[in-house]
Amino acid sequence: MSLDNTHYEALAEQIESILRHPERAIEHIRDERTRRRLVEGGCKLSAALEQPKETFRRVGYSHLQLPLALVGVESGVFSALTAEPRAFNSAEIAARTGVDPGLLRRLLRYYQATDVVSQVGDDTYRSNNVTRVLSNDDQAKSLRWTSKITAQGALNLPDWLRSNRYRDPVGLMPTAWTSAVHTDKHPFAWLAENPWALELAQDHMRIQREGRPLFFDALNFEQRFAQDSTSSTILFVDVGGSTGSQSLTFRQRYPNLPGRVLLQDRPEVVQQAKAELMSSANIEAEVYDIFTPQPVKGARAYYLRNIFHGLEDSKCVEALVNAKAGMTDQSVILIDEIVLPESNATPHSSQHDMEVMICVGGIERTAAQWESLLKDAGLKMREVVKYDKDYEDSLIIAGIN
Ligand SMILES: C[S@@+](CC[C@H](N)C(=O)[O-])C[C@H]1O[C@@H](n2cnc3c(N)ncnc32)[C@H](O)[C@@H]1O
Question: Is the entire prediction scored with pTM above 0.80?
Answer without folding.
Answer: yes
